[in-house]
Every structure is written in structure tokens, then in C-alpha cells.
Amino acid sequence: MSWLLDLDRDIFIFINSKMTTPLLDVVMPVATELHKHYEFWIFIALFFAVLILRPTTGAASGPELGSESGAGVTRKSRARAWLTGVLLVGLSMGLADLAAYRGVKVWVKRDRPEAAGVPVVLRTDSHSGWSFPSNHAANNFAMARAIQIVAPVWAIPAYAFAAVVGFSRIYVGVHYPLDVIAGGLIGLLCATLVGVAFEAMRQRLARRLRQRPRTGV
Asked: Which class is domain 42-211?
């Protein structure tokens, strides 16, 4: 096991200290703290609003989990599908954050590179708390997996964004590569579990609706 931790440390030092460029020095600190900028969330809100309010077509570019398609798509049904998708994303990220922060971190208790005495070039504020796994990676990969479930057409951009954020945690000096990998796996697993639960509930509700006696004239 020590060889793996040594390799993890060496890769961290390479990315943090050797694989540096002026462009990454600007982009990565922004990417790693993007969730703290209100402009980012305004953009996300506007993005969802455009997807909901755009003219209806037969093309499927939104949530698929229990959504309608074709001529039956209306702004109301699309909004309902997107709200379901947002709920799935939120629950997935919440579960991933809880599992990583309250579960694995306090069990493993791995020091961050700076606290462990590893040579670090900090490109963000000094972080306290445990290092393994990365909550940023857990949250963002949970979001990407949830988006893949409800809106597959947006999966590649979502995973690309999660990967950039995960890489940024190494580049700015607050996480080892294994922290990010583990966080990403936790996020994927949590979002998959939430997606399975959502689909099971949707199918159960659909069966109940089909079994409900119809009232006729």
C-alpha cells in the first residue's frame, strides 16, 4: 500500500509543481472555486430557463427519466421533467457530499498535502480538514452522472466540467490524485443509486395510475 501512496504523492508533486503554465495558473483557481461565484449560479439558472421555455419540438434534448416526447411535449411537461431532474441532481450531490464528508473522510483521516509536509504550491486558500476523498470531485461527478441519467445529451459537457474541477483540486494544491479519483467514484455511485430509486418510484407510481379505476359516463 505504501507504494501506491508514494506514487500518489509523486503524481501530485508533478501536477502541482511541474505541470504548470500561466494559463492553468489563471484558469484552475477559478474552476476550483466556481461554485462560490454567484455569476455561475445565475448562468445555470438562465440555462435551465432557456431549456424549459424554448419552442417545443420533437427532439429530445432534456430529461428522459419519466419525461414525455414528441408531439406530447409542452412547456409544462418539460418544466416538470426538468424540475424532476434538478431534484435528482440535488439529491445525488447531497448524498455524495454526505458520504464523502461524514463517512469516508472521518474514517480514513488522511492529511492534506500541505499538512503532511509535502512540497506544495498553493494556488488557493489553505484548506483545513481531511484530504481523502475530495468532496468537490464527489459532488461534481454526482452531478454529471445525474445529468447523464436525466439528460444524456448533456452528459459529455457535464463530465468534462467535473473532470476539470477534479483536476483543479490537484493543481491548486489541496488534494492528491487518489482523493479526486475516490471522490469521483463516490459521486458516480451515489447518483446511480438515486437514479435507480427515482426510476423505481416512477414505475411504481405509473403502475398505480394504470390500476386506478377509470370513471366514465
From this structure: mainly alpha
State pTM to two decimals.
0.83
What sign has the CA pseudo-torsion 78, 80, 84, 89?
positive
Segments making up each domain of the chain, as ranges: 42-211
> Residue 181, class by beta-carbon neighbours within 10 Å (0-12 exposed, 13-18 middle, 19+ buried)?
middle
What's 118's DSSP letter? -
pLDDT, tens digit (0-9, with 9 covering 90-100), for 119-137: 898 988 888 889 999 999 9
Greatest alpha-carbon pair distance for the chain in Å reads 79
Quote the cell numbers at residue 96: 455524495
46-71 burial, b if ≥16 CB within 10 A, otherwise e? eebeebbeeeeeeeeebbebbbeeee
